[in-house]
Amino acid sequence: MPLKFTAAAAALLMVVSAAPASAKSLVAASPDLIVKFSTSNGRVSLRNVGTKKSGKSVVTIVCQKISGRGSCPDPKPKLVQKYENPAFPNAATVKFGSLKASSSKNHVLNFWSSLNFAPGQYRFTLIADAGNTNAESNEGNNTTVVIKTVP
Q1: DSSP per-residue codes, 81-93
Q2: Is 102 exposed, middle or buried (0-12, 13-18, 19+ CB in 10 A)?
Q3: SS3 of residue 77 by DSSP
Q4: How far apart are alpha carbons 42 and 60 in whole angstroms?
Q5: Are 74 and 58 spatial neighbours (Cβ–Cβ below 8 Å)?
Q6: pLDDT of residue 23
Q7: Residue 19, in any domain of the structure
Q8: I want to staple 45 with a disulfide (CB 3.0 to 4.6 A). Which of 17, 36, 61, 70 is the partner?
């Protein structure tokens, strides 16, 4: 079976070839925040995979309709107010407190169940520590993209 070169394989290759075995001892303890998102229930999960407690942070969520008619559904104004932040226009924001190393916190968007998604595909782009308030060991893993398909 021939070897297939995929994005995952390329990322693994970069990690393996870029860091010597002793590299971990050369990096100071620091937080490393990653975000996950469930399009089935609107749950935002922020995890600190680093070796030090993080400070407070903000996760941004942007929806883009990528196929089908229309656009992303708009939440009811009274439900979305707590997710608005003038520093991040056109994005929903979720504020998270500090996270200990190897811990996580979840937040379910209170407007999610009221959204009516028309048929098509939607791209959700989430950015952990969007305000860049934490000096992380890996700033390159803060963005997550999730696709929701509605038949």
Answers
A1: GGG--TTSTTSEE
A2: exposed
A3: helix
A4: 13
A5: no
A6: 42
A7: no
A8: 36
Tell me which DSSP letter residue 101 carries: T
* Residue type at 54 in one-letter notation: S
What CATH number has the domain bearing residue 51? 2.60.40.10
Please give the Cα distance from 132 to 114 (Å, whole number).
31
Name residue, tokens 């009516």.
116
Cβ–Cβ < 8 Å for 46, 102 = no
Number of domains in the chain: 1
What pLDDT shows up at residue 28? Answer: 77
Structure tokens at 27: 């990096």
Tokens describing residue 73: 């559904």
122, β-bridge pairs: 65, 148
Per the structure, the complete domain to which residue 48 belongs is given by 31-150
